[in-house]
TrEMBL record:
<keyword id="KW-0813">Transport</keyword>
<feature type="transmembrane region" description="Helical">
    <location>
        <begin position="204"/>
        <end position="222"/>
    </location>
</feature>
<feature type="transmembrane region" description="Helical">
    <location>
        <begin position="301"/>
        <end position="320"/>
    </location>
</feature>
<dbReference type="Pfam" id="PF00528">
    <property type="entry name" value="BPD_transp_1"/>
</dbReference>
<feature type="region of interest" description="Disordered">
    <location>
        <begin position="1"/>
        <end position="45"/>
    </location>
</feature>
<keyword id="KW-1003">Cell membrane</keyword>
<comment type="similarity">
    <text>Belongs to the binding-protein-dependent transport system permease family.</text>
</comment>
<dbReference type="InterPro" id="IPR035906">
    <property type="entry name" value="MetI-like_sf"/>
</dbReference>
<feature type="compositionally biased region" description="Basic residues">
    <location>
        <begin position="31"/>
        <end position="40"/>
    </location>
</feature>
<dbReference type="InterPro" id="IPR000515">
    <property type="entry name" value="MetI-like"/>
</dbReference>
<feature type="transmembrane region" description="Helical">
    <location>
        <begin position="165"/>
        <end position="184"/>
    </location>
</feature>
<protein>
    <submittedName>
        <fullName>Carbohydrate ABC transporter permease</fullName>
    </submittedName>
</protein>
<feature type="domain" description="ABC transmembrane type-1">
    <location>
        <begin position="128"/>
        <end position="320"/>
    </location>
</feature>
<keyword id="KW-1133">Transmembrane helix</keyword>
<feature type="transmembrane region" description="Helical">
    <location>
        <begin position="243"/>
        <end position="268"/>
    </location>
</feature>
<keyword id="KW-0812">Transmembrane</keyword>
<feature type="transmembrane region" description="Helical">
    <location>
        <begin position="63"/>
        <end position="88"/>
    </location>
</feature>
């Protein structure tokens, strides 16, 4: 055996594994590598973006970047917060100041008694209590129905499950105004049972429970749960209901928190549907109740009522904004 053959074969024997065949680089890559070796420089990485790192390293580039960034952030902040500021300051103004042209940005005199007047005259305590009942019931029914449906579509995988999910998602493409009349007729005369659910909490609870968007979010998260966890529980004799309660729900708290917050906020801010199904003044939520009495109240009292109605939603958002973003972006488990 020749010396070269022995060396090549000896290399393979010493390593204990066959040598890998590395495909030759493309001609363009070979030319770029040769040029970089000749010049003594490392090949530059391709940069994709609006502003290159070289531009940001210059003084002029940094100044322009921060000016544009601060201008955009401040502009969007003012645009989104100005309606809230106008509502809060409008409640502190007198009716004459609100009717002034051009309007003033700051109240001349601050009077907090208008909030107590709005609470008493508009009976906001009753409307808030009704809204809390509707939101709590809708939250419970939403979790019971949507979590079960998403778990069945994700882990139980029934026959025609993909077709059922597709039909659920198609409902998101239909404008809500289109299904408003059929939904009202269904609530007025419940099929098969023939019950009239108007002026009852069921008229808000049942439609809120069926939400294709929530089912999609939950299914997307359930798909990321490792199958090995469920198979191990099945080997221990756990039923599907037990697996859902003991394994799936504990690891799905981020997305369940998002669905809970969004379901409560949907009921809290809804106006058209409660206006149709809750015509009795004693059963109205706060959005419909304020609108029904707005013609009889001064503008500053009406704005004070709107501020009171907005406080719960703002507080919930401020406390749970991180949970909302974390749940929406959660799609995998670490471990």
């Amino acid at each position: 055996m020749s010396n070269s053959t022995a060396q090549s074969s000896g290399t393979g024997v010493r390593s204990g594994r066959p040598a890998r065949l590395v495909p030759p680089p493309a001609s363009g890559q070979r030319k770029a590598a040769r040029r970089s070796r000749r010049s003594g420089r490392k090949p530059e990485r391709e940069f994709r973006g609006l502003i290159s790192p070289h531009t940001l390293n210059t003084t002029r580039g940094r100044v322009i970047y921060w000016i544009v960034l601060v201008t955009v952030v401040v502009s969007f902040t003012v645009i989104f917060l100005f309606p809230l500021y106008w509502m809060v300051t409008g409640a502190l103004k007198s009716p004459e100041d609100l009717a002034q042209i051009p309007p003033s940005l700051f109240p001349e005199s601050i009077n907090f008694d208008v909030y107590k007047e709005a609470w008493d005259q508009l009976d906001l305590g009753l409307f808030l209590r009704n809204t809390v009942v509707y939101a709590a019931g809708a939250w419970l029914f939403t979790l019971a129905v949507d979590v079960s449906a998403a778990y069945a579509l994700s882990k139980l995988r029934p026959v025609l499950g993909k077709a059922v999910l597709g039909l659920m998602l198609t409902t998101l493409m239909i404008p809500p105004m289109v299904i408003l009349l059929p939904a009202y007729l269904t609530v007025k005369d419940l099929p098969i049972l023939g019950w009239n659910l108007l002026n009852t909490p069921w008229a808000i609870w049942l439609p809120a429970a069926a939400n294709g968007f929530f089912i999609f979010l939950l299914k997307r998260f359930f798909d990321s749960i490792p199958r090995e966890l469920l198979e191990a529980a099945e080997m221990d004799g756990a039923t599907p209901a037990r697996i859902l309660w003991s394994i799936v729900l504990p690891v799905s708290r981020p997305i369940i928190g998002v669905v809970s917050i969004l379901s409560v906020m949907n009921v809290w801010k809804d106006f058209v549907w409660p206006l149709l199904v809750q015509p009795d003044s004693d059963k109205m939520p706060i959005s419909v109740g304020i609108a029904s009495l707005s013609a009889q109240m001064p503008q500053n009292v009406l704005m004070a009522a709107l501020v009171i109605a907005s406080i719960p939603a703002i507080v919930v958002f401020l406390f749970f904004q991180r949970s909302i973003m974390a749940g929406l972006t959660a799609g995998s488990l670490k471990g």
